[in-house]
From TrEMBL:
Protein name: F-box associated beta-propeller type 3 domain-containing protein
Pfam family, one: FBA_3
UniProt cross-references to PANTHER family, sorted A to Z: BNACNNG10540D PROTEIN (PTHR31672), F-BOX PROTEIN CPR30-LIKE (PTHR31672:SF13)
Lineage: Eukaryota, Viridiplantae, Streptophyta, Embryophyta, Tracheophyta
Sections of the chain in a coiled coil: none
Domain F-box associated beta-propeller type: from-to ranges: 16-244
Length: 246
């Protein structure tokens, strides 16, 4: 990596983190791997497409960036996927046995050696799209899908989070002011989704759907909430809120 001094001090978008490295987007398909401690920076070779996130391959001790792009022909649109290996310092295409329908391009959740993000399919028979999770195993470089709870039919999944090492999601109900917290108890069993907490609209604070971040904090179920530059401690058992920082 090359030390570029103050190169990365401007306004950037964080797209992922891995072993002390940050994947930042400075605009116009310009992505960098940046070490904020040493201020070392590596500019990734530019490719037109979508960068999904950064993950760590524990088997090969390598940081990898997952990237996708479209090939448009007269008859179809084909998705292609590439990996940038920090160890090999190069892009390479990988085979994907899954089609990402409408992936959400926020930073994925890194958990259990995999990256997780939401995607959805349009379904004319339903009022709401069919949401699911796309999982990318960083070591094997394989995709898989995880269905969300069946009850998530009229909701909107707003965030993935780690719940004591298990995969969890936060769902915003159609009225926007109601939230459900779910956890997948068995990673290999999609039927093991459990509703942990239901947060009613009568809560003492309004959690805005697109301006709120939830972070699991303790085994007692207390949740750290980031909203509009304020840090809050929220206990969903009694809907109590304590301001930590603003």
């Amino acid at each position: 990596m090359v030390n570029l001094g103050t190169h990365a001090t401007g306004c950037v978008s964080l797209r992922g983190s891995c072993n002390g490295l940050l994947l930042v987007d400075v605009g116009e398909d310009d992505f960098h791997l940046w070490n904020p401690l040493t201020r070392e920076d590596r500019n990734l070779p530019s490719l037109p497409g979508v960068v999904f996130g950064l993950g760590y391959d524990e088997v090969n001790e390598d940081c990898k960036v997952i990237f996708s792009f479209e090939i448009v022909t007269k008859h179809e649109i084909m998705m292609r996927y590439m990996i940038y290996s920090l160890r090999a310092e190069m892009w390479r295409e990988i085979e994907a046995d899954i089609a990402l329908d409408q992936p959400q391009h926020d930073s994925p959740l890194a958990l259990n050696g995999a990256l997780h993000w939401f995607s959805y399919r349009e379904d004319n028979s339903r009022k709401w799209p069919w949401w699911y999770l796309v999982v990318f195993d960083v070591a094997s470089e394989k995709f898989r899908e995880i269905d969300l709870p069946n009850k998530l039919a009229e909701g909107f999944p707003v965030q993935r989070l780690s719940v004591d090492g298990c995969l969890g999601i936060v769902e915003s109900k159609s009225e926007w002011r109601t939230y459900d917290f779910w956890v997948l108890n068995n990673y290999e069993d999609e039927g093991s989704w459990t509703l942990l907490y239901h947060v009613p609209s009568s809560q003492p604070i309004y959690f805005e759907r697109f301006h709120t971040g939830f972070f699991w904090l303790s085994e007692k179920g207390v949740i750290l909430v980031l909203q509009h530059f304020k840090l809050l401690l929220f206990d969903p058992k009694d809907c109590s809120v304590k301001e930590v920082f603003r």
